Amino acid sequence: MLNLTYLAVLEPGEDGSYSISFPDLPGCFSYGEDLSDAQHMAEEAASLHVYGMEQDGETIPTPSIRLPKEETEGNVIMPITIHPDLYRAKRDNERVKTNITLPAWLKRIAEEQKVNYSRILENALIDYLQLPKKNLQ
Q1: Which segments of 1-137 are extended strands (E)?
Q2: pLDDT tens by residue, the chain, 137 residues
Q3: CA distance linking residue 51 with residue 91, whole number of Å
Q4: 75 DSSP 8-state letter
């Protein structure tokens, strides 16, 4: 299992909140209401950012070991470890809503027979796309 540890820069706000950024992950920002929330939000933001980079075919940056002084002064530096393989599996296996259209008469009959549309459509797509059955969760 792949683990990556990036350094998060937490900039304290006057109200106890923190703005979060990752020098190694340009464009990855978040916010936490307190230090504990900031840690949680940083993990989620970095995981989602790396997942998006993977989906876009981008190279995943190598984490830095230390940051320049100008980025750390007055800020909290927190190592954030993410698990891209676990996050990818979680995201890829999430259930998502999809709208379909059917003739009214067919929907009526299916509802009378308590049809599980999701299961039928999932199985039909797996068969249609000739995917191995082992991909079913």
Answers
A1: 4-12, 18-21, 29-32, 76-82
A2: 689 999 999 999 999 999 999 999 999 999 999 999 999 999 999 999 999 999 999 999 999 999 988 878 999 999 999 999 999 999 998 999 999 999 999 999 999 999 999 999 999 999 999 998 765 55
A3: 9
A4: S
- Contact partners, residue 98, CB within 8 Å, separation at least 6: 121
At 87, list the tokens: 């996050």
Q: What is the pTM of this model?
A: 0.78
Question: Which among 11, 5, 54, 14 is positioned nearest to 30, based on CA atoms?
Answer: 11
**Exposure letters 5-14 (e unless 16+ CB within 10 A, then b):** ebbbbbeeee
Whether the CB-CB separation of 23 and 75 falls below 8 Å is answered with no
**What domains sit in the chain, N to C, each tagged with a CATH number?**
4-92 (3.30.160.250), 104-135 (no CATH)
